[in-house]
Amino acid sequence: MKRLYIALLAVTFIFFSYSSHAQSSVMGFSETAAKTQLDLESEFDTQIVKANLDDWMKYMSARPHHVGSPYDKKVVDFIAEKFKAWGYDVRVEKFDVLFPTPKIRLLEMTAPTKYKASLTEPAIEGDESSTQLDEALPGYNAFSIDGDVTADLVFVNYGLPADYEELERRGIDVKGKIVIAKYQGSWRGIKPKVAAEKGAIGCIMYSDPKDDGYAKGDVYPEGPYKNEYGVQRGAVMDLPYQPGDPLTPGYGATDDAKRIAIEDVTSMTKIPVLPISYHDALPLLKALKGAVAPSDWYGALPITYHIGPGPAKVHLKLEFNWDLKPAYDVIATLKGSTYPDEWVIRGNHHDAWVHGANDPISGLVAMMEEARAVSELVKKGFQPKRTMMYCAWGAEEPGLLGSTEWVETHAEELKEKAVAYINTDGTGAGFLGAGGSHTLEKFFNQITHVVEDPQLGVSVFDRRNAVELANGRPAWSHYKLGALGSGSDYSPFFQHLGIASFNMGFGGESSGGEYHTMYDSYKLYTRFKDPGFIYGGTLVKVAGRTSLRLANAEILPFEFQHFTKIVSGYLDEVIKLSSDLRKKADMKNTLVDNNVFNLVNNPKDNLKSPEAEEVVPYFNFAPLENAMRGLKRASNKFAKSSSKGLTSSKNNIAVNAILKDMERELTREHGLPKRPWYRHHIYAPGFYTGYGVKTLPGVREALEQKEFEEVKRQVVILENVLIGFTAKIEEATRLLN
Amino acid sequence: MKRLYIALLAVTFIFFSYSSHAQSSVMGFSETAAKTQLDLESEFDTQIVKANLDDWMKYMSARPHHVGSPYDKKVVDFIAEKFKAWGYDVRVEKFDVLFPTPKIRLLEMTAPTKYKASLTEPAIEGDESSTQLDEALPGYNAFSIDGDVTADLVFVNYGLPADYEELERRGIDVKGKIVIAKYQGSWRGIKPKVAAEKGAIGCIMYSDPKDDGYAKGDVYPEGPYKNEYGVQRGAVMDLPYQPGDPLTPGYGATDDAKRIAIEDVTSMTKIPVLPISYHDALPLLKALKGAVAPSDWYGALPITYHIGPGPAKVHLKLEFNWDLKPAYDVIATLKGSTYPDEWVIRGNHHDAWVHGANDPISGLVAMMEEARAVSELVKKGFQPKRTMMYCAWGAEEPGLLGSTEWVETHAEELKEKAVAYINTDGTGAGFLGAGGSHTLEKFFNQITHVVEDPQLGVSVFDRRNAVELANGRPAWSHYKLGALGSGSDYSPFFQHLGIASFNMGFGGESSGGEYHTMYDSYKLYTRFKDPGFIYGGTLVKVAGRTSLRLANAEILPFEFQHFTKIVSGYLDEVIKLSSDLRKKADMKNTLVDNNVFNLVNNPKDNLKSPEAEEVVPYFNFAPLENAMRGLKRASNKFAKSSSKGLTSSKNNIAVNAILKDMERELTREHGLPKRPWYRHHIYAPGFYTGYGVKTLPGVREALEQKEFEEVKRQVVILENVLIGFTAKIEEATRLLN
User: Fold this and answer.
1) Partner-chain contact B304 A214, CB within 8 Å
2) Which among B2, B209, B599 has the least Cβ separation from residue A594?
């Protein structure tokens, strides 16, 4: 990598010349403190024992351990005992949360031929855990309503709004019908949400082998990909609206909390939903007739995909136990020496859909090994400046329930004390992937340069950067954090309370189809995902440094130039989006007015020309551009001032107090339109993508959903957010000078 | 289309304002003559009887009629009698050509399990012609050599050079192996050619359902797409090297022609080749292990595609009858009144792989109806100025044998007399597709504006243009002719002799999988391809106008501004290609030098880093750019002069004499590198694409194949061609003034 690196470093120096002190500098640390910190990290590395990850995964994934199951309690006890043994102060907090489990699951085709879906995942020879059917939850979607419906079937591709536009052009209405949608293309909960909006009375989801099966690679047990029987379980509560216990929306599900009636829950689906395997989907799809699906709707089943409706008619009957179940959060604390009331929080959930070797145990064991290695440092006399907390969350799978209830319960204290939240979940082999607050991107970049890839003798940054180069893209000047959407326990910290967060893991060489199936087993993980836990060990180094540096920093390592550059990019995107949408609508309307659609279509296909659509007005984005200019100036001044270093420890404390709260400045109590629980105005999960992030969500989604008055309101709110954030930076800068 | 048309016409006027006299002007005709011509064309239209197309297709596709079959002779007699009845002077010219037919076809898997390929296309209920197995040629590739080979199987995607680079990176060598390649991605003959170059000892080709089967739509008989048993027959002689009878290369296969020995034939494959159905391919592909194929190699079979080699081992045994068979060309002539020695030649082949309802009969019946309608005009007193010839070619399917032998036999006379050649082959419903000499693009554009789409009440130009608009591309200022590669009977006229040519037909709403299978039947055609022959009738109008206008023009309607613009674009492409290849090689070498490939690859996959490749030098393209500037100036002057009109009929004759021979100026006797038969230096079929065109082929292919000394030689040749062409234009311009 020599030749390339010369060019790369040159670029880095141009942009970041004021701070690149190579390996010996650590953001937030004086030169002397950095030395001590780097020694500490070397010592930390030597403590890591990869065999622990293996042993603990073997134990914790030995039996199904979903929310409320006997083995989940055993896992909780195991974790708590470990942390106690390592000297942590351990509490187990219990929240009783609504967790529906299936009572009746019936799916049958009643016409034109009969077929009863098996809805089972057979045992795999050589993988003992797949035989434990008694304790396992079968394939289902948590928070589907009960239902008993019979209707003609319609294939709706991924079941997203654009797919229904295609149906409309073909004159196909799903009203009163049952839809079958492929998994993927969005978070699963979007599919029944949109189907219900369109009038469907039931929704079936299946994993098509093109996206998740033999077209990806060899299927289990020959390879890690989804075999014909694998079923992806998963929650379908309206997560982009609000996660957490549906009976205690916005507040903790403590013993004495007031619970609303199930009938009043708004985040449940409106129609019954069931996930099935491609083995069960094939006979249904094969029986469909009517229009042939557009070519980009095709999966990899050996059929011509038809849309229907019918003649396939299906009967879907679902009943659930609507019980409260205990969600246990294990909270292990190591008190800080200097700032005990500043918390660095590290978390990973422990509940699984079945055995969950990958999801969540692979991340959990890395976190536990990190905590154990830290405890070894403590034995040698180390004490972090700030309080370090290791949290193993319960009930993440049905909708981030354990973390959300904990955050809602301790919201005021967290807003006061939390410095940052570092999340992991499943992890594997390959390249470092990380998302998070861009105020910490520069900080995190340093870590990616000092941790080595366990196979190739280069830094994890270099390895990740090689992906860019190999794809003909320019070299990364620094490690680029993704923007966080949702799908794991950072959401309540980050998007609800405004606590700077990370989510990280390794991947890219550990793909498979085990996600939320019976086959996410120890056997599969150790054969295919990260044999020898070599990348698991590297994750301990990356996440451990993130925790330890945040815990020990003299000045919290937030800065604002990276953030400003990123958000400025988001603003450019949004402005371009408005112009693209305008051009697209104008172009489409011109084509409609001029009959072009009728001229290109085959008259015998009877495709309707789309209708002319609402034109997109021009918006005043100047307030945002002006606010961005102010932010940029303030960020540059802060960088200049902070590069001088501090002298007075009194000012240190005052600056840290401001920095700690900066992410909160990006939130507003009133939250986002239609979903007040989501308070962050820079990052949110997409209302129609689910896990996928929408940045500057207020403005962006109002544009996408063509709510033009809302665009104007959100511009004002975002301007206000940026101006407030800028003022805080200026305040910190004054203290630095 | 109103609003859009205002904008479109504005554009048209800017570029072509000197000639747009709307409907009443006809290129090559004075105002008075144009009026007569347009009246003639109206009368021509009224003569067209679509039922004739139906009746004749029913008769000619009733039985298999491949080269040398009893029914092909009946078809020839039928055509000849029709033309005679219509008053044409008819000759049937017979050439005895090498046409191998299968004696033994055996394909079996011998390990790890046994499977014997069925190699049959079962009868389809309701399609009587599919039961005629006795007379039909089964699935085979003509001009495969005999062979009896057994070896491990390797899946090679489409079997193109880039696919072998992927294999090489995986350390997979096909030497001594049998390869299985998907059809498509190139002309079929390329696959065994490349496989043999790489050392394979046998080649199997199959139609994957992703490209040609259920993933395209409902399969026959439910729909027109390829069912699991359909097998694409076809020639695999080295067509991009030279078409025609292999025993008489470059000269006519007349009775007294000297025939070379079969052993000396160079255009035969080097290894045995057999085409199979996806039904027969599935067990073989399923049995392959080894590396999983790259995701873009995947087809739509319900398997994980592996590359091998093995453990699937196959035995392929092929033996052919190496017989001479008669190829009959029916030549029907209508003598010209004013210029009997100037020939406008119209052609379509009559031989089929089996019944050939679509290929070639759908085009043939349109040509016959055109000839019949012209004969009705003759009955009413019309006589064309130039001689019109209607030709029904034999033995096109095995490699353009009938047309090539005829052209080679009559080469000197054709170079003297041929004005243009107009080809059709299969045709269907939808949009007009046409390729040809760009010196006739402006001429053809006028025709596309006056012939109406038979369903939508707009011109065929407007309908084709709607495709551009609907795809967000700018409106066409004029009908754009494609560049001709190969694959039908225009090749000997166009690329061997330099006779200005067209190839045209309708398509886009008549896709299917019947091509070269047992199922290209009357039944399939009339159900799915062009029910009621409504687009067949429209093709008569378009091709008929092309013939009639060329036959009657006062000044031949060639011009050079369109040509110049197009060729100038080709030159830009070639210059960009050299720069892209240079950048790509430099980029790749940088990545190789810096170990990037090893950093992005999963170490456990054992993917080799590609090797550094030869750098691409800078070339002197200035001679071509200077020549283009000269051509542009000359073309503009010619346009200016010709727009004034002519006065002296003596000059008319002199100008026509030059124009008639213009396309010949683009050829050179020495032909292209490695393939002297191909003499055209602007258009050729690609050496590694087959049917696909390569424009400026000498320079472009030398670049692509990294033969850098050849690039320099070809630049000189092309410069010379362009300068010679320019000089002829200047000569014509002088005569006009």
Assistant:
1) yes
2) B2
Please name the residues between 595 and 614 in chain B that touch chain A, using a CB distance below 8 Å.
595-600, 602-604
Select from A2, A6, A304, A528 the residue whose CB has the most chain B CBs within 10 Å, as the one to mutate to test that interface. A304
Facing A600 at nearest CB: one of B219, B223, B466: B466
Are B597 and A470 within 8 A, CB to CB?
yes
Which tokens sit at B175?
A: 């030497």
Check A469 against B4: CB less than 8 A apart. no
Residue of A nearest to B215 (CA): A304
Smallest CA-to-CA distance from A312 within A25, A557, A114, A70 is with A114
Confirm or reject contact between B469 and chain A (CB < 8 A): yes
Radius of gyration from C-alpha coordinates of chain B: 26
Domain residue extents for chain B:
2-98+325-552, 101-322, 561-736
Q: What is the mean pLDDT of each run of 10 residues along chain B (737 residues)?
A: 30 33 77 96 98 98 98 98 98 98 98 97 95 95 98 98 94 97 95 97 98 97 98 94 95 95 93 98 98 96 97 98 97 97 98 98 98 98 98 97 98 98 97 98 98 96 96 95 96 98 97 97 98 98 98 96 98 98 95 93 86 94 98 97 76 92 98 96 92 95 96 98 98 92
Cis peptide before B221 (omega within 30 of 0): yes
Contacts of B467 in chain A (CB under 8 A): 600
Separation of alpha carbons B286 and A190, rounded Å: 36
Return the H-helix or E-strand segment holding B358.
Answer: none
Cα(B441)–Cα(B563) distance, rounded to whole angstroms?
8
Q: H or E stretch including B57?
A: helix B50-60
B223 with A304: Cβ contact below 8 A: yes
Q: Is B216 on the interface with A (CB under 8 A)?
A: yes
Question: Which chain A residues are closer than 8 Å to B597 by Cβ?
Answer: 470
Residue showing tokens 């040609």:
B212
**Do B101-322 and B561-736 agree at the fold level?**
no
Q: Looking at domain B101-322, which of 3.50.30.30, 3.40.50.300, 3.90.950.10, 3.20.20.70 is its CATH number? A: 3.50.30.30
Pull the structure tokens for residue B675: 């393939």
Question: Which value does ipTM take for this structure?
Answer: 0.90
Task: Select the residue of B302, B429, B466 nearest A599 (Cβ to Cβ).
Answer: B466
* Alpha-carbon gap, residue A67 to A72, rounded angstroms: 7
Query: Closest to A603 (Cβ–Cβ): which among B216, B455, B458?
Result: B455
CATH number for the segment(s) B2-98+325-552: 3.40.630.10
Q: Inter-chain contact B599–A4, Cβ cutoff 8 Å?
A: no
Q: Best interface-test mutation with A: which of B304, B431, B461, B597 has the largest number of A CBs within 10 A?
A: B304
Q: Is A331 exposed, middle or buried (0-12, 13-18, 19+ CB in 10 A)?
A: buried
At the top level of CATH, the class of B561-736 is mainly alpha
Cβ-defined contact of B470 to A600 (cutoff 8 Å): yes
Note the pLDDT of residue A7: 33
Nearest alpha carbon to residue B370 among B542, B559, B158: B542
- pLDDT tier for residue A647 given thresholds of 50, 70 and 90: low
Amino acid letter, residue A333: T
For residues A391 and A423, the answer to whether their CB atoms sit within 8 Å is no
CB A415 within 8 A of CB A483: no
**Of B113, B210, B207, the residue nearest B153 (C-alpha):** B113
Taking the CA atoms of residue B253, residue B258, residue B261 and residue B264 in that order, the dihedral angle to the nearest 10 degrees is -80
> Do β-strands B339-349 and B386-393 pair in parallel, antiparallel, or remain unpaired?
parallel
Q: How far apart are CA B550 and CA B656, in angstroms?
A: 12
Is-contact B460 B41, C-beta < 8 A? no
Tokens of A300: 């990899």
